[in-house]
Sequence to fold (211 residues):
Amino acid sequence: MLRELFASVVMMVLLMPGCMESSMMNESSESTESSIPFEITFNASTLDRVEDQGADFSLKDDLSDGPVMLLWIGAGCSGCQDWTDMIREQIDNGELDQTNISFVSVHRWSDFETRENVEEAFGSNSTSSHYTPWKVVLPTSSTLALDFSTEQNTDHSLYAAYGNPGTPTLQLVAQNGVVAWESKTYWADESVLEDGLTFFSSQVNTQAVEE
Fold:
C-alpha cells in the first residue's frame, strides 16, 4: 500500500513540471505577442506619376501637412470607381477647398490585381475612365504597419493593422496616426463624406476648447 502511494506521489511530481512549463510557455507566448498600436503609419510604393510626388510614399510624411483620408480601392471595384469620381468632381468644383485633409488611394488587392490593372483604372488623365488626381499607393500583403512614434515594424501586416478593410472603405487618419473615422458605404455618397469631414472638424474644435 505504501509502495503504491509512494509511486503515485512520484508520478505526480514528475508530471506537474511538464504541465506548469506548458502553461507558462503559453502565458509567455501570449505576453510577448505584439499588439497593434493605435498610432500607426506605413511606407509603400506608388504609381510613380507626377500626381504621386515620387515613387515612394510615407503616410507619416503626409500627415505632417494635415489629416489624410485613405480610400481603399480595387481596380475592378465599381464602388471604388464611383467614390473616386465623386471626390475628384468635388475637388475640381472647389467644394473641398476649405479643408486641409488630403486624399490617398490605397490598393487593397495586391494578391489578385497587378500594378497595370490599377494604372489602367485610375492612373492616367487621358486613358483612365476613373482618373485619380491624388496619390495612388501600392502596398503588398507583405507590407508591414509601423509604429507611428518609432517607425519600427509592428510585425503586423498593413491590411490587418487597418482592420482588413473591404473595398471601398474610407478611413480618416488624424495627424497622430490614429484612424479617427471610417465609412464602408459601397456607393459614393456626398453626405457620408461630409459626415467624415464634419466629424473631424468637431473633434478639432472640441480639443481647441479644452486646451
